[in-house]
Specification:
The protein folds into four domains: 89 residues, Alpha-helical ferredoxin (Fumarate Reductase Iron-sulfur Protein, Chain B, domain 2); 47 residues, no CATH class; 106 residues, 3-Layer(aba) Sandwich (Rossmann fold), CATH 3.40.50; 115 residues, Rossmann fold, CATH 3.40.50. It is 48% helix and 9% strand. The chain has 409 residues and is of the alpha/beta class. Strands 2-1-3-4 form a four-stranded parallel sheet. Strands 6-5-7-8 form a four-stranded parallel sheet. The protein starts with 12 loop residues before the first helix and ends in a 7-residue tail after the last helix.
Length: 409
């Protein structure tokens, strides 16, 4: 049992489920219940299924597994639960319990946590314009739907970041910090990571990054792959501890909760949202930002609300850019549909959620869309591109760093 509950509280599913009083206050906040209005697609319905599966009262049928797999893991329910039910732990343990009954993940899903392969995939797709010819070719092969999804959702490399003028190294350095690159983010979020480094260095910090590949473990953990999650956690902890800093800053909101509450649980390392860290640093007052007239639509990922520092630090930082008007997308439908590898495993449901978000962006007509989660930016960015929209989608860090007074045009 220790392996299947790695990083959780160690309580049984039944003990965790007993905290739920079935009040239903979570229902309006659950994206999948909103899609189907079906009790088994709600948090309390899944908690009931989990309890019965662990006790053996309910067989692990395809339909039961499907209801559990439809969960996005957004934790919108956990954020509003008056009984403080640890839904995340219930979901992780139940999926680990069901892991032997599931088919092995597809190739693309397995690639998501391997930066080297991801980089080659993205470079190949861009070089040969795979999204133009792969859909037609896919119809000639078994499993063509997966190839079509691959063509449509292969991430594009981020736009080049501005050339930076190196800031003089402060004497003394204010402190040493580790910037967490992640797996998907290390390849497709390089602009955000570079922006985060520049902002930290401008504030006088020395920034370290791990020499070995690191992953927060969220993909494996939420797929029930407990052994893989454990191995990832051990390797990541070693690599981060070797950086010699006590604080690990994370720019991808989707990594914060898994890294803090699971992979690094028990470690002396402190995990923090880089946006919250920057906004709370008194030295932020010493930075100047160039004016930027325009409208930016702020998308708040589920994980920014449930695991990171919410919208407050983002608003505070972006309000430092003169002329920038900040708009916020509506709270519903809570999740954009990306949710780790959900957009691959549940494409129809993911696309329904994304379609609603895209409609909201189009209605606001912003000059930029901002989101703190790399998965959300990739998925929403692909959707915008497929509709012909030219609205760029960036991390707030990137926009902030572009407007720093010492950035080169």
């Amino acid at each position: 049992m220790a392996d299947t509950t790695h990083g959780t509280t160690g309580s049984s599913i039944a003990a965790l489920a007993d905290q739920c009083v079935m009040c239903g206050l979570c229902l309006p906040h659950c994206p999948t219940y909103r899609l189907d209005r079906h009790e088994a697609e709600s948090p309390r319905g899944r908690i009931s299924l989990a309890r019965q599966l662990e006790s053996g009262q309910l067989p692990a049928s395809a339909a039961t597994i499907a209801h559990l797999d439809h969960c996005l893991g957004c934790l919108s329910c956990q954020a509003v639960c008056p009984s403080q039910v640890r839904y995340d732990d219930i979901l992780i343990q139940t999926r680990a319990l069901l892991a032997p009954m599931r088919p092995r993940p597809g190739l693309l899903a397995r690639w998501l946590s391997r930066p080297g392969l991801l980089g080659r995939l993205g470079a190949f797709s861009a070089a040969v314009s795979a999204d133009r010819w792969l859909p037609g070719l896919s119809r000639l092969f078994p499993g063509g739907s997966t190839l079509r999804r691959l063509a449509a959702e292969t991430p594009r490399a981020p736009a080049p970041i501005p050339r930076w003028r190196r800031m003089p190294k402060p004497d003394p350095v204010r402190g040493r910090l580790t910037l967490f690159p992640g797996c998907v983010a290390s390849v497709f979020d390089r602009d955000s990571l570079a922006a985060g480094r520049q902002l930290l260095e401008a504030l006088g910090y020395e920034v370290a990054t791990p020499q070995e590949p690191v992953c927060c473990g969220a993909l494996a953990l939420h797929a029930g792959e407990s052994q893989q999650a454990l191995a990832t956690a051990q390797a990541t902890t070693r690599a981060l501890e070797a950086c010699g800093a006590s604080t690990v800053l994370v720019s991808a909101s989707g990594c914060i909760g898994s890294l803090r509450d699971h992979s690094l649980r028990g470690s002396a390392l402190k995990v923090a949202d880089i946006l919250g860290f920057l906004a709370a640093d008194p030295a932020i007052e010493t930075l100047s930002f160039r004016p930027l007239p325009g409208r930016a639509a702020l998308h708040l990922p589920c994980t920014q609300i449930s695991a990171a520092d919410g919208a407050g630090p983002i608003r505070a930082l972006l309000n430092r850019i003169p002329g920038l008007e900040l708009l916020e997308l509506p709270a519903q439908p809570r999740c954009c549909g990306a949710a780790g590898r959900y957009f691959i495993d549940q494409p129809e449901r993911a696309d329904r959620l994304r379609s609603e978000r895209l409609g909201q962006i189009v209605e606001l007509a912003p000059d930029w869309t901002l989101s703190t989660n790399v998965g959300c930016r990739i998925f929403l960015g692909n959707g915008l591109r497929q509709t012909g929209s030219k609205v760029p989608i960036l991390h707030p860090l990137t926009l902030l760093a572009r407007q720093l007074e010492f950035a080169q045009p």
